[in-house]
Structure formats: structure tokens, C-alpha cells
Write a structure and sequence with these properties.
This protein is α/β, with parallel strands linked by helices. The chain has helices at 17-27, 46-49, 54-57, 80-93, 103-106, 137-146, 215-225, 242-249, 262-274, 276-279, 318-324, 342-347, and strands at 78-79, 108-111, 113-114, 122-123, 128-132, 150-155, 177-181, 184-191, 194-201, 232-235, 254-259, 281-285, 300-307, 310-315, 328-333, 352-357. It has two domains: 31-156, no CATH class; 208-357, 3-Layer(aba) Sandwich (Rossmann fold). The strands form four sheets. The chain has a seven-stranded mixed sheet, sandwiched between helices. Bound molecules: zinc ion (2 copies).
């Protein structure tokens, strides 16, 4: 079964979750022929970056870096720092950075399948998405065509702290700009109930950096041990669908996923497809996604899935969803930090036996 990428329409972007779990542990590993980790200081100015590594690459200045620099002849991968240095060389060549710039200045590198890797990753083709501050569309396209490891280039908008998405249905979406390539990537989510691969179009999805198991998953595990995850669970602002789909894994009888932001609903549907065999679900679409508004008002039932659990996916305002759902055992409200949730909890007081804001 192939799944088409909602961003770039390619059928190579999305690997079914069970195949991701099989290959993830070697995806970023060095092979026996890979050279030792280069010592490239993240804060070292570019003009001194390769001072200590002449013996390996013999690199002198930006003209010396190209797509063969320090690439393993055997597995074809390169160390993350070498890839980022290649990108920095392009930024300097194009006048966006000076020669004092460091690897740190390039931006935030995100590997396309994220999990806790206990070593610096070695990258193959299309395995890195860059979130950059100093970048333009023309240079982003150069990076995509010259650096094989880079799959997508995103330009950050606003401050680091400003969350991506919508705060509530009254606010306009805050999203980053995808300048070139494709920004679809996945994160392996681990829980006591098993693992999922949660994909997301990264430029319009909030970035969560977690160390080990996420706090939110621990909240779900604690609810499970209190036998609160058995019945019907509503994931009221589901984002890419993580909490609702982990609830399916945990054995909930019914799960309702909802988000007011259309990209989140699309990612949730993609994640039901990509994790279909892990979850034991078969998806059925009820509306054409291209006909839905970016920010929802009245809830619309977008898709259902059946098998191990009865799943419904809605695109709607979470307060108005409370009137649509007849009764549920648990309502999870995972709003952005700083958004007052008292009104949301109040709206669900009649419908849900228990409301948990995460
Ligand atoms: Zn794609
Ligand atoms: Zn190698």
C-alpha cells in the first residue's frame, strides 16, 4: 500500500509505520567504512571550521565544499555537521552570511524520522529538514538542488516561542514558510502501549522537542493505569493526532479526534493511514479535504475508521464539538501554553465525565 504525501504528492515520502520501526535503528547509523566523527565546532567561525580536518578532506574555504566532501564511499552517508557546513558554505557564497558565521547560525536541523538517537546522525538522501532564519527562496532552492541530504527548507516566522498553528478559532494561523522541497517528517512516539510514527507537515505544525518520553504520553499512561482510557475518549485539539491515536493503542473503545486547523486534520488522517496496521484500523473518508476551510467553525465529520476501535475525525471548533458528541468518558484538551482553557473545560463539563487539560 502506498500513501501519497499531502505536501509534495510523492509516494516516497511516507513509509508505513511498521517499516519505519524495522529500519529506524540503521537509518542514521555509520557503516564500518564511515570515517570517524569530524571535529567541527558548532560555534567555530566558518573560515576556521576545517582547520583541524585537512587530513580528512583537505578543504580550503567555501569553494572546497561540495556534495562529495567527507561522504562515505561505501554507504553514501555524511555526518550531520558536514551537511550543515555544506549548507553554510552556500549561504556564504550567496552573501546571506559572512565567513565568521558558524554551524549554529544555519538554523534548526530536523531529521525526517525523529527519535532518540544515541549518536550524531549520518545522513542519506532527503533525510534533513532545515528551519532557517536567514534565507530566501532562491537560495533555498539552491540548497535543495546542491545538498542531496536536505529534503526541505523552511523559513522561521516570528519568535522561537510563538507556537505554530492556531491558538483558537478566533485567531489567524501562525505558520512558517516552506521555501523549497517538502517539509513532511515523522516522529517515533513511544508509549507503554507501543510505538507510532506520527507524521507532520512541519511548517504548519507546532515543533515539540522532547527528551525521551514526552510528558503528555506520561499523562496518558497515568490515565490508563487509573482505568480512565477504556471507554470513549475525545482528543479535542488533536494536532497530528498523537494523543488520540495512542489512546487507540491503549485499547479505548471509541476515540474522537478533532482539530479546528485543517493542516492538523490532514496530518491526523495521514497518521491513521500510515499507522493503519499498527493500530488495526481501516479508514473511510466522508468529505473531500480540499473543500474544507483552513479554520473550522461548526464541526464536520471528515473521516471514520473501524477495526480495533471506533474512530471519528472532526474538523471543528472544540467548544462547538461538545454539542455534537453525545457523551464521552474522557476529554483531553491539549491547547498551546498560555491559552486559557477554562472556557474549553466548561463547554465539555456536561458532555464528558472527565476533562483533562494537558
Ligand atoms: Zn512530501
Ligand atoms: Zn559509511
Amino acid at each position: 500500500m502506498t500513501i501519497v504525501c499531502p505536501r509534495c504528492d510523492s509516494s516516497d515520502c511516507i513509509i508505513p509505520a511498521e517499516q519505519v520501526f524495522e529500519s529506524a535503528y540503521i537509518m542514521y547509523a555509520a557503516c564500518q567504512s564511515c570515517m570517524a566523527d569530524p571535529v567541527l565546532g558548532k560555534q567555530t567561525p566558518f573560515n576556521r571550521l576545517f582547520d583541524g580536518v585537512d587530513a580528512i578532506g583537505g578543504i580550503d574555504g567555501i569553494d572546497g565544499i561540495d556534495d562529495v566532501t567527507m561522504r562515505c564511499q561505501s554507504c553514501g552517508k555524511r555526518h550531520l555537521d558536514v551537511v550543515v557546513a555544506h549548507v553554510l558554505g552556500i549561504l556564504i557564497r550567496e552573501g546571506l552570511c559572512n565567513r565568521q558565521a558558524t554551524l549554529f547560525d544555519v538554523g534548526t536541523p530536523m531529521i525526517t524520522i525523529g527519535y532518540q538517537i544515541p549518536f550524531p546522525p549520518r545522513l542519506g538522501r532527503d533525510t534533513l529538514i532545515l528551519i532557517m532564519n536567514t534565507i530566501d527562496k532562491r537560495t533555498a532552492e539552491m540548497i535543495i538542488s546542491e545538498v542531496p541530504e536536505v529534503k526541505g527548507v523552511i523559513q522561521r516566522k516570528g519568535s522561537l516561542e510563538h507556537p505554530i498553528g492556531i491558538l483558537d478559532t478566533g485567531s489567524s494561523p501562525h505558520i512558517y514558510d516552506l521555501l523549497a522541497g517538502c517539509d513532511l517528517r515523522g516522529d517515533i512516539v513511544s508509549s507503554a502501549f507501543g510505538e507510532l510514527c506520527i507524521y507532520k507537515t512541519q511548517s504548519d505544525t507546532h515543533i515539540e522537542f522532547s527528551r525521551g518520553k514526552s510528558d503528555k504520553i506520561q499523562v496518558l499512561e497515568s490515565l490508563y493505569y487509573q482505568r480512565k482510557l477504556l471507554g470513549s475518549v475525545v482528543d479535542a485539539c488533536c494536532g497530528a493526532g498523537t494523543l488520540g491515536l495512542v489512546s487507540v493503542l491503549a485499547g479505548a473503545r471509541e476515540v474522537i479526534l478533532n482539530d479546528a486547523f485543517l493542516p492538523a486534520v490532514k496530518n491526523t488522517i495521514l497518521n491513521i493511514r500510515a499507522n493503519a496496521s499498527v493500530l488495526g484500523l481501516e479508514l473511510e473518508m466522508h468529505v473531500n479535504l480540499s473543500e474544507l476551510p483552513v479554520v473550522a467553525g461548526a464541526p464536520v465529520l471528515v473521516a471514520t475508521a473501524h477495526g480495533s476501535c471506533d474512530v471519528s475525525v472532526y474538523h471543528g471548533d472544540l467548544v462547538r464539538l461538545a454539542a455534537v458528541v453525545e457523551r464521552c468518558d474522557l476529554c483531553l484538551i491539549d491547547a498551546f501554553i498560555g491559552v486559557p482553557t477554562a472556557g474549553f473545560a466548561e463547554a465539555w463539563k456536561e458532555t464528558a465525565r472527565m476533562v483533562v487539560t494537558i
